[in-house]
Amino acid sequence: MAMLLADRTIIVTGANGALGRVVAAIAAGHGARVIEFDLAFEADAENRYVVDLLNPEVIAGCLETVGDVDALFNLAGGFDMGPALHETDDDLWTRMQRMNVDTMRNMTAAVVPAMLARGSGAIVNVGALAAREGQANMGAYIAAKSTVMRLTETLAKELRESGINVNAVLPSIIDTPANRAAMADADFGRWVDPQDLAEAICFLGSERARAIHGALLPVAGLS
């Protein structure tokens, strides 16, 4: 059987993050040509691009050198706890929207026209299991990830007749160094292993998921 992502070109945004590095490695292991986008990297490497995802012109310039893109993994984003919603300031609200929603919207807008022209493609977004309902002191983050999830469903309905799959994973707490440091007393074994989440993302970006449209796939481990 052919490798899951053989001969597919995949862009991974947020590729220098804890999850992004794992997804890039897993996707490459499945045979993909992986294009890495992020604001910064520790070292230069082939197919690595320093990209401000809030700047559509910069995105377009990078895509000109990449060529055809078979799948887009929108991993760029961020999390901040907040105060109560009535105490949340504009800075936090805007930051969560820009990091989680605008980066995804800009990348999607940049790659979809070429996917439509070819009649094929896949987009995988990252929502949040917690964003299926409201959560105290997380209003700005929950609103942003909820938007990602609703836009995933919207894009799926708009693009599925054109051979493009759009889906999202909904992780709970991911087992990363930052999360371990922030919650040192937690049972890390109940969290989501980044490799397991990466495998789910890669599956949704493959031809084997061609019948799946608009799914919001919980990836929760034991949490």
What does this structure look like?
This protein is α/β, with parallel strands linked by helices. The protein has one domain (9-219): 3-Layer(aba) Sandwich (Rossmann fold). The chain has helices at 18-29, 56-66, 90-118, 139-159, 177-182, 194-204, and strands spanning 9-13, 33-38, 48-50, 71-74, 121-126, 164-171, 216-219. The protein has a 7-stranded parallel beta sheet, sandwiched between helices. It is globular and about 45 Å long.
Outline the secondary-structure elements.
Blueprint: E1 9-13, H1 18-29, E2 33-38, E3 48-50, H2 56-66, E4 71-74, H3 90-118, E5 121-126, H4 139-159, E6 164-171, H5 177-182, H6 194-204, E7 216-219
Parallel strand pairs: 1-2, 1-4, 2-3, 4-5, 5-6, 6-7
Helix pairs in contact: 1-6, 2-3, 3-4
The Rg value, from CA coordinates, equals 17 Å
In total, the number of domains comes to 1
Using the 3D structure, state the CATH architecture: 3-Layer(aba) Sandwich
Question: How many individual β-strands?
Answer: 7
Describe the structure in brief.
The chain has about 220 residues and is α/β, with parallel strands linked by helices. It contains 6 helices and 7 strands; from the N terminus they run βαββαβαβαβααβ.
Key phrases:
223 residues, alpha/beta, Rossmann fold, seven-stranded parallel beta sheet, 6 helices
